[in-house]
Design brief:
The structure holds 2 protein chains of 2 kinds. By secondary structure, chain A is α+β, with helices and mostly antiparallel strands. Chain A contains 26 helices and 21 strands. In chain A, the strands form 3 sheets. A 6-stranded mixed beta barrel of chain A has the order 2-3-8-5-7-6. In chain B, 29% of the residues are buried. Chain B is mainly alpha-helical. A two-stranded antiparallel ribbon of chain B has the order 1-2. The chains are: A alpha+beta, B mainly alpha.
Chain lengths: 877, 126
């Protein structure tokens, strides 16, 4: 397959070159392909991304060289002048062509820039292909990748071979205070080798050195916080800042474009795992970190994985009760960051390519329609002695000029679209801020413009050259070869309809997919809920004071006008800013150890929380509002956990155990609630347990406030209430529940809007194609139609005859497009939700839409045929 | 002395021609061998593709600096042999012509003179 594509592209080179070097070039490509395949999927994509523009560009250059050998430069110069005159002489047609193609190329330029940056360009770190992410896995628990636990990571770092360095991080936030301001800042706790592993030097100051980190700190600032809070003061290095009650020395400032693990992080606090967890061996089971490693020179990802897995195996022998069954997995960091976006981007890119193809077919048809006019002129020149190659060159230069102009427009349009895409942050695509028009994009634009020229200009060029064989006709109307030209135009329109069908089918599928996602019951009531987060300092206050703080705060919020109910949880559904973690659980009396027990997602909530977000109680009661630390622990289960623990029912009143804080503890079930789609509508619910904040206090909580009307309008008064409650304690991460839910469907929304838009454009272009061909055919057959009418045919018969012509094209389009849908459908299957690519409803709707639009586009000109007067037969010609 | 004027006309060599000739003076190689060697020597900065390598070779052959080798070297790199015996057998090797060798020599002389001039201007470098 790959080699066939390569061979097809080689056709761009002159024949002599292909004869001499074609096989050699193919061999070289095969070698490179094998090498790329050995190195992984990204490398194959990258090889293609380099090879295709390279072949197009050099193929055309080589042709130019070959041409220069036979035609003098002066001739091309002359051609160019006359081409420019011709382009200017019909400004309407020329600008229609240039704008149509310019828009098509522009959309391609924008998507290609994104694709190139996100998928193909390495991450912005030195030798980024050596960066990998490290995971723990346990097939007995689930088939997911788990972040490593602090102790396991520490042992990996000390013993695993094949890595030059490793680092772990954990996303958190800190309350930063000076005399003048207080602000909650997104922060990452990172092990000392973090910056060395990524290979990025600070802009100011230095990276952490391992021996300076005792427990937490010093701290590295992001460029953003440095300019925002310190006015970009270069003397900031060495000063002390206070975060959540701890003092840290500032060791440096990172460059502007450093955004790891994500752009929201504004400070990096050094973290010494062995010291922090020195007297907590059980932390070996807390798998909550994220870890990155840099591979040594020749180590491949799979070799590194084997090495790490060996370490994990020996760790599970040493710590069987905590590590049994846990192995290690290594994945490419690029893949982890890009991940799900890959499919979205390829689908978007494919659809803009389709649009460009349809646009090319339209332009080709426009030029073909002008062939009879032009062939008079061309025939005359041939009669006057111009050689065919000279005429062909003139036309080619004219087409190339149109193509290059379109490319220039396309570049402008592309840059504009790109701005828009970045500004809207559409579809939740990672690395969008890195996207820029660079040399590769320029080369792509040029290649696209030249390929477009070949696509739209090839057929008209051949037709015109053929026209030189015949003598000029005075009117340029009855030139021979028009039948061939007409069927060629039919082929183009059939092709347009086929491509439009594929786009329509795609748009239909993603739209019904989105509809089904929207209809998924999230398990709670997201309308009119405002949420925000408060993170108390870990250094001050007792557990009782933590409980008191949140109870007092909720009391104060409930008293605000417009507030219906209030509750807090350490992790809100779909909220990326939260402390989401899971712990092992077991039935009462089960002897399972922590390593073997299944895990449950932990939700620590205040008593008002289930009501505030509108969760539904299935049986039993809510968490009591007066539970306290000394009393037996109570728990609320979600439906999934209740079904796992008590498949035969009878959950309420039973007791089970969770390994949390003080080891295995019994919890009494007070009630069961409906499943909440905590990770978005697409992910199946996991087992969840809701514990009372009064019994297991937690420092950082997200508060949900149900309001009477627009929750976003309440943010100001909520913020004020938090400030009044404790002046130096800020609230942050204000967002409404509906926005969180909408964000969780960003990719689906993006694809359905984009494909819907493209399908609309494709349908419009294809229908103008149908219209053009039928209108042209009717105007050319006036005489024939007139004769028929004179012989007694009625209007309806004439219209039917004309429509039959359109029907032929539509059938071809539907059949070819249908095959395309079946082929491409399998590729998008994984992205769809609750709808199959061969969904009959979708197929019927799509075919009906396309057929009726095509019929309308054909009927408008066909109707005119019915009004042809029989006398036309005599008048015409 | 038509050879001499031929060489004069080639100078200065394009960087890519210089690299190709340099690789081929170490022995005849096929396309992939040339590409890998240049990649290694330029520390990955020059990555030739099938689309352009053979254009450069075509030009060098036309200019008489390089020619397809009459017979293949007996020993190839073990790594290169893995690609498959059949493909290996029909693979074409290129070698540098005497004219190419002289052109490379002349270019090296030219560069040496430049380096000397630069060093005398800068004083001891490094």
């Amino acid at each position: 397959m790959s080699l066939r594509v390569f061979r097809a592209l080689l056709a761009l080179y002159p024949e002599r070159f292909r004869r001499e070097y074609g096989t050699d070039a193919e061999d070289l490509f095969r070698d490179r392909l094998e090498e790329a395949r050995r190195r992984g999927r990204g490398h194959v994509a990258r090889l293609w991304a380099f090879t295709v523009p390279n072949l197009v560009w050099h193929g055309l250059l080589e042709r130019a060289v070959a041409l220069r050998a036979s035609v003098r430069l002066r001739v091309i110069g002359g051609s160019f002048g006359s081409a420019a005159r011709k382009v200017l002489r019909s400004p309407g047609v020329s600008s229609a062509i240039v704008l149509t193609l310019g828009l098509g190329i522009g959309a391609n330029v924008a998507l290609y820039s994104v694709l190139r940056t996100v998928l193909i360009r390495p991450l912005p770190y030195p030798e980024a292909e050596r960066l990998v992410q490290l995971w723990e896995t346990n097939p007995a628990v689930d088939d997911e990748l788990h972040g490593p636990s602090p102790w396991n990571f520490t042992d990996w770092e000390a013993t695993a071979e094949g890595f030059t360095s490793m680092a772990a991080w954990y996303l958190t936030s800190g309350t930063y205070r000076t005399d003048r301001w207080v602000e909650e800042v997104r922060s990452a706790q990172v092990t000392p080798d973090f910056f060395r592993t990524l290979g990025v030097e600070p802009l100011l100051g230095r990276a952490f050195s391992p021996d300076e980190v005792e427990r937490y700190g010093p701290v590295m600032l992001s460029h953003r916080i440095w300019t925002r809070l310190f006015g970009a003061d270069p003397t900031v290095v060495g000063r002390t800042i206070v975060s959540s009650g701890n003092s840290y020395t500032i060791v440096g400032v990172m460059p502007h474009d450093f955004a790891f693990p994500d752009p929201s992080v504004e400070t990096w606090v050094a973290w010494n795992l062995p010291n922090v967890y020195a007297d907590q061996p059980e932390v070996r089971t807390w798998r909550f970190l994220q870890a990155v490693g840099r591979l040594e020179g020749q180590t491949s990802v799979s070799e590194a994985e084997e090495a790490l897995d060996r370490v994990a195996a020996s760790l599970s022998e040493t710590w069987p009760e905590m590590n049994r069954g846990w192995g290690a997995s290594v994945t490419s960091l690029h893949e982890d960051i890009v991940g799900d976006t890959r499919a979205t981007l390829w689908i978007s890119f494919a659809s803009v390519l389709f649009i460009l193809l349809i646009a090319c077919a339209n332009v080709a048809n426009l030029l073909l329609a002008r062939v009879p006019l032009r062939s008079a002129e061309v025939g005359l020149r041939a009669a006057l002695g111009a050689s065919r190659s000279r005429i062909a060159l003139d036309v080619l230069v004219e087409h190339t000029l149109l193509g290059v102009l379109s490319g220039a427009i396309g570049l402008l349009v592309g840059a504009g679209l790109l701005e828009l895409l970045v500004a809207l942050d559409a579809g939740g695509i990672p690395r969008l801020s890195e996207v820029a028009i660079d040399r590769g994009v320029l080369a792509f634009t040029l290649s696209a413009a030249l390929l477009t020229t070949l696509l739209f200009g090839g057929a008209p060029l051949l037709q015109l050259v053929r026209a030189t064989r015949f003598a000029p006709s005075s009117q340029g109307r009855r030139t021979t070869g028009s039948a061939g030209r007409r069927s060629l135009r039919h082929v183009f329109v059939g092709g347009q309809l086929a491509v439009a069908l594929v786009l329509l089918a795609g748009a239909g599928l993603f739209l019904s997919s989105l509809q089904r996602i929207v209809r998924v019951d999230p398990g709670f009531e997201p309308t009119n809920v405002a949420t925000f987060r408060v993170s108390l300092d870990p250094v001050e206050g007792t557990a009782g004071e933590t409980v008191g703080y949140y109870e007092g705060l909720e009391e104060r919020l409930r008293a605000l006008p417009g507030v219906l109910s209030v509750g807090s949880a350490q992790s809100l559904p779909m909220n990326p800013v939260s402390n989401d973690f899971r712990r092992p659980y077991r039935r009462a009396g089960s002897g399972l150890g922590s390593a073997d027990a299944p895990t449950v997602q932990m939700r620590i909530v205040t008593p008002g929380y289930p009501e505030a977000i509108g969760m539904r109680l299935l049986e039993g009661a809510q968490l009591p509002s007066d539970a306290s630390v000394g009393e037996p622990l109570v728990a609320l289960l979600n439906r999934t956990l209740a079904a796992r623990l008590y498949p035969d029912g009878g959950a309420v009143g039973s007791t089970f155990e969770i390994d949390f804080r003080e080891g295995w503890q019994p919890y009494r079930v007070v009630g069961v609630v409906e499943d909440v789609r905590h990770y978005g509508p697409r992910r199946e619910p996991l087992p969840e347990v809701f514990l009372s904040h009064r019994q297991v206090p937690y420092l950082a909580m997200s508060t949900a406030v149900r309001t009477e009307s627009d929750p976003a309008a309440m943010f100001g008064s909520l913020r004020d209430a938090v400030r009044l409650h404790r002046p130096m304690q800020p609230a942050h991460a204000f967002v409404t529940m509906e926005d969180l839910l909408r964000d969780s469907m960003a990719a689906e929304r993006f694809l359905s809007v984009l494909l819907g838009l493209f399908a609309g454009i494709g349908l419009f272009l294809a229908s103008t194609g149908v219209y053009g061909v039928i209108a042209f055919s009717v105007s050319h057959r006036r005489r024939e139609i007139g004769v028929r009418m004179a012989l007694g045919a009625d209007g309806a018969q004439v219209v039917t005859a004309v429509l039959a012509e359109a029907l032929g094209m539509a059938v071809v389009g539907l059949v070819v497009g249908g095959i395309g849908v079946l082929g491409l459908g399998r590729l998008v299957e994984g992205l769809l939700f609750g709808v199959s690519p061969t969904d009959p409803m979708n197929a019927v709707a799509v075919v009906a839409t396309l057929a009726s639009v095509a019929a309308l586009a054909a009927w408008l000109p066909a109707r005119r045929a019915a009004y042809v007067a029989p006398s036309e037969a005599l008048r015409s010609d | 002395m038509s050879d001499h004027t031929d060489i004069e006309r080639q100078l200065p060599l394009k960087p890519i021609d210089f690299h190709v000739l340099l690789v081929l003076t170490e022995g005849a190689r096929h396309g992939y061998g040339i590409v890998k060697q240049i990649e290694a020597r330029s520390e990955g900065r020059i990555r030739l593709q099938p689309g352009n390598l053979y254009r450069y070779l075509r030009r060098l052959v036309d200019e008489g600096l390089v020619k397809p080798a009459d017979r293949r070297p007996v020993v190839a790199n073990a790594g290169e042999l893995q690609a498959g015996e059949a493909a290996e057998a029909r693979r074409r090797y290129y070698e540098v012509t005497p004219l190419g060798r002289r052109a490379l020599g002349a270019e090296v002389d030219r560069m040496r003179a430049l380096v000397a001039a630069a060093e005398s201007g800068l004083g001891p470098v490094g």
